[in-house]
Batch of 3 targets.
Target 1
Amino acid sequence: MSTNVIADLTTRFGEGAVAAQQTADAIPTAWIPAERLTDALTFLRDAPGGSYPMLFDLSAIDERCRTHREGQPDSDFTVVYHLLSFERNQDVRIKVALPSDHASVRSVAGIYPNADWYEREVFDMFGVGFEGHPHLKRILMPPWWEGHPLRKEQPARATEMGPFHMTQEDASRMLASLEFHPEDWGMRRDDGEHEYMFLNVGPQHPSAHGVLRLVAQMDGEQIVDVVPDIGYHHRGAEKMGERQSWHTYIPYTDRIDYLGGVMNNFPYVLAVETLAGIEVPDRAKVIRIMMAELFRVISHLVYYGTFAADVGQMSPVFWMFTDRERAFDIVEAVTGGRMHPAWFRIGGVAQDLPQGWEKLVGDFIPYMRRRLKDYDAAVTRNGLVKARSRGIGSVSLKEAMDWGASGPFLRACGFEWDFRKKRPYGGYENFQFDVPTGSHGDSYDRLMVHVEEIRQSLRIIEQCLNGMPSGPYKSDHPLATPPRKERTMHDIETLIGHFLSVSWGPVIPPGEAFAAVEATKGNHAYYLVSDGGTMSYRTRIRTPSFAHVQMVPLLSRGLTISDLVTILGSVDYVLADIDR
């Protein structure tokens, strides 16, 4: 393939079948007829000299209320396929236009296995069908739900809905919908030689790390298959993006990976800044990186301690949660909050660093390094931990790519891929750090990658401490929200501008932009569509946990329930990151 993927598609399928679109994020974007979709994706996946082996995301847009649609064909619904090429270090966005009277397209689960859940989500949220899908059922909403929440006619606020009444008949119907029927998933209770048992794990089970339900098909002690049942934590985060202003949506982002704090703000504000053309000052960039890496340490400490508990150790989780609180003391001193500070802003951060921040950060770095040495002796070199995790939940690099794995999960397979290195964002190109990798792709390697990432995050934080630039903490761009104080208290006009910017929110130019970061659990991304207003027309949240939990059946087959507990602990997910 050439360096111009759109030209390659045009050469392969003809000018009449490929229509290019310009976007604010400069990602190559092409519209493909629905009948040529599977051919185009197969061509991109297998193309020599720069294939796209990963379906990074699959989503949809309800176009029926959109006014700014320049450069795209007429459609009621658009299905969006976001592919990633590691060889090219490039993305490509493929779009398919669908009419309301035939909102259906061929399933691509046979090309990209991870399309299974993504297509179910689009069906659930938009009512778009996928012909040939093996299990086209709702995935986030309960089976009895009426309507498709991300369609524009669906309400975005509880005040727009009628009162909720439940009869005894409704309750019985809802309970019946939770019954698991193996036949619905192509499973058999008895194959003539084996009589299988179906074991329910969760949604209220400590090893599920939240309201995750798993139904395991068992042949004695051995797992034959697993069916994850998600959606119990779904809160409509993407729908809420359509009813909040660009500015007031920031606190909602904190609640996605609720252990990641400001790391959740990062891709959102980057995407808005791309749409608005805002350049962030150097000081704000370094502050953002320092706080994001501090939250990586905080999140990884939770992972480290809970993984040790999952394999049979009790003490480490208490030690690590204590150290996590020490890190939260820094977060509180800087932001005023702890777990969910909602502190990044469009154009920078909420306020400058407080006096004394250097000592807090400077004391924490050597302290945490000493503690990691103690943890190594107690956990990673412990024979029990090794016996319970080595060779358990192994996955090959190809399988990881096929299923959309990212972050520590992907790097545990021996692949040195990190967005901070491969496509630096927000100032990461100015920092020195290593990218730890594993070699077997098993639960132990996933643990070791997380542990080494804590050390590398401390290294980045130390560079922020020693090289914090002077200057403003927020851009002076007119769309930076809220405006800096010197632009606010100058006269009545600037004060009015501040009031409107905060209450109504900035008016972001029409367009679409995608931004991804190397978050605590993998690649976390926002794909935003602006229709030239004060609110997002479409807010798409791509999370690593959704992709990783879809892999649990692959990781678990042929193992035991105790191994399943280890696998769940090693994957590093939170339910809000899956369900949004």
Target 2
Amino acid sequence: MAAAQAKDSPYQVQVLDRAMAILDTLAAHDEDLSLYEIAERLSLHKSTIHRLLMVLERQRLVERRAPGNKYGLGLKLFELGNKACARLGIAERARPHLERVAAAARETAHLCILDDGEVLYLAKVEASRTVRVPSSVGQRNPAHCTAVGKALLAHLAERDLDALIHDRRLEAHTPNTITTPTLLKRELRTIRERGYAVDDEEIEEGLRCIGAPVRDHTGRVVASMSIAGPAFRVTRAKTAMLARLVIEAADALSAELGYSSPRRNAKSGERPAERRLTATVGGQ
């Protein structure tokens, strides 16, 4: 009986409501907010907000950042969001798109998310090739030296990216691995501008990959898709052509998740991924 009463306690419900109100308030603002600003927006006493913020910060749901000791959303929310997407069947939704791009490129296709600062492989479709990519569903890899990982990192908030770099470090796996924050951030800016990422033998010598972001209905990047193959087949000369295939497949999955891509709108309702991916890459 006591357990049931505790479960239904109006005070506990109120605490949860207020904690969620804090998260919603921080999410609604591009800039971090001070304790006073949060209290003012929610019309609650500063001591109440302070107690709740301490708990949320301990759970990594919010982060307090300098200068000014202001609060913003924590990386834990991003991790939880990605896990929720994985459980909502994104891998099953992605499979037809992965199959099309794998058939068109004649290379292995992957779907990945960012989980606890690493790339987690949710789905894989292999092409009928003798030499294949050594990967498996459930495998984890560093984000900074993979195409799928860099496609995800490119769309993190800078403070979340800084926290990930600090926690995970930029370990070298090959001579091509990017190992400094300055160079990585420069690479991520390029990825945002062109719309795709390249792993140029950065995690394993002889392996080259091309990845593009997948967005949900809000426009948030929740996953990434890639094609991967040996460098002698996935050559630099083919990068732009293969990137178009990956982008089209990622855009098609994003549309299925409810995202309205400017690229798709410009096509006046055409479905470029389904139209173009039926052709295989020439010369393979």
Target 3
Amino acid sequence: MTVEALLPTSADEAASLYGDGAGVTVVGGGTILLPEIAEGREKPGRALMLHRAGLDTLRVDGERVVIGAMTPLAVLADAPDEVLASAARNIGDGEIRRSATVGGNIAAPAAADSHRGDLGAPLIALGARVRSTGTGGERMEPIEDYLAGDRAGRLVLEVEYDRFERRFGAAGLRRRHAHSYSIATVAVCARADGSDLRIGVSGIGPTAVRCRAVEQSRAAGDVLVDVDPVDDAVASAAYRRTVLPKLVGDALDQLERR
């Protein structure tokens, strides 16, 4: 089968070539896509190669942090906010982090046997917004809305969040493996005075989830109001239901101590 390679040299050209996404396979770092192609589950007809599109930068723009969709996870290890940097340092191994991209991490569809999207938890906690284009044109939306919506036909361009003095906490549990699969990841952030608490959980289902019930009650057990853990090859739903309230409690305790 012949594959047509599309090689944009700017974000605008990438958006134009992508259109509504019909018949287009987006190629970022390839850590998710290439195994899918090798197994015959993905058969690209038109491949949008984003490596030269200028989307691989992390910059502090005044009071905003702006992260291009093609920014490697390895770059996030030095991100300005430790809650995001620490999450990035624990995804996969060094080889994966040098290739995998921010856009691919949050945009990839759910896998049949494990979750994807570890960055969702800290980005939700930071109040991040996703700028994407595709069906209906360009839009900016909270990351939790982007993750909960229909991501088909959307091309992620950037992720951004506001910088201000924060306290944070994080907790997680991972399966020992060369690629360090996550069983559950929790990230919490609040303003210095404790207000504007935001809690994100990933690794427990198809996408990361914002835990509004815990934000309101500050009771770790309420995480199961917001989250319905699933079974996969990494852990059972029952196990996740058991450990998740403890992880949320640990993250909240860290936040209170900072």
